[in-house]
Design goal:
Layout (H helix, E strand, L loop, with lengths): L3 H5 L4 H11 L4 H8 L5 H7 L7 H11 L3 H6 L2 H11 L6 H5 L8 H29 L1
């Protein structure tokens, strides 16, 4: 059963934007550039402080970060950590022994794929910033 306190807990969408942005190694300035002329680093900083983000802005940011908007809307780091810590305690290895995971993919390949995607996104961002600098 889900704890009622967890159900009533507010998700801080701005903080989630910041988490996903940092995971992808995207700077606030780069996100602002992608969002358009009305945006700058300070405005991104203010956006990341908002508990609730306007749905149109959230959709734009999600598209730029290449994550589902629902991930930003619903991600709760505290709940994720609690689930992990409750599932895998250091004193109880029976849970680990009971799990028989046979993935249909190579996890290392997925990590390499993710890393390559992050490098590609970073290079795209660098190219766009270089264009911006050249145009000034």
């Amino acid at each position: 059963m889900i704890d009622t306190a967890m159900q009533n807990k507010k998700i801080h969408q701005g903080r989630n934007i910041k988490r996903f942005r940092e995971i992808l190694c995207i700077k606030q300035e780069a996100l602002a550039f992608e969002l358009g002329d009305d945006w700058n680093q300070k405005k991104i900083s203010l956006l990341e402080q908002k508990e609730i983000v306007e749905s149109d802005v959230l959709a734009q940011v999600a598209q730029i970060l290449k994550v589902p908007a629902e991930a930003i809307e619903n991600f709760d780091e505290e709940q994720a950590v609690n689930i992990i810590s409750n599932t895998f305690t250091s004193n109880d290895t029976s849970t680990l022994n009971a799990i028989n995971v046979q993935p249909t993919f190579n996890p290392l390949d997925k990590m390499v794929e993710l890393y390559e995607r992050m490098l590609k996104q970073q290079q795209e961002m660098i190219d766009k910033l270089e264009k911006l600098i050249q145009n000034k």
